[in-house]
Amino acid sequence: MNKRTSPPRNVCRMTERAGPVPPWAQVTATMRERITSGELPPGTMVPSIVALHQEFGIAKTTARKVLAALRDEGLIVTTPGWGSFVKPEGQRPER
After folding, report:
1. Domain assignments of the chain as residue spans, ordered by start
2. Nearby residues of 53 by Cβ (< 8 Å), 6 or more positions away
3. Which DSSP symbol is given to 90?
4. pLDDT digits 0-9 by tens, 67-92
5. What is the SS3 string spanning 23-71?
6. How far is CA 14 from CA 40, 53, 58, 93, 94, in A?
7. Which CATH number applies to 23-89: 1.10.10.10, 3.40.47.10, 1.10.3880.10, 3.30.70.3270?
8. CB-based burial, 17-32: b 16+ in 10 Å, e otherwise
9. Nearest to residue 14, comparing CAs of 33, 30, 38?
10. Which one of 38, 51, 56, 77 is most buried, by most CB atoms within 10 A?
């Protein structure tokens, strides 16, 4: 018997699904703010796909898209087998 379980009650649902901005863009903006504000300082490990999935209540595919967007913006670097880390400020593109 395959029983579906509901997500943990402590999941932080910070995305507005009915809004005009897609969930991946909302989470990307939140993570970008955490990085640029210093809440996630340079060299800090960024939450994994699973951690983003659990924290924001988004699909794992969406979480992958968030990390890809942050990589494309030059805010993080991903090392296979190690994870994703905030780039030092001197290595980030100027805004």
Report:
1. 23-89
2. 59, 60, 62, 63
3. G
4. 999 999 999 999 999 999 999 987 66
5. HHHHHHHHHHHHHHCCCCCCCCECCCHHHHHHHHCCCHHHHHHHHHHHH
6. 18, 11, 9, 27, 28
7. 1.10.10.10
8. eeeeeebbbbbbebbb
9. 30
10. 56
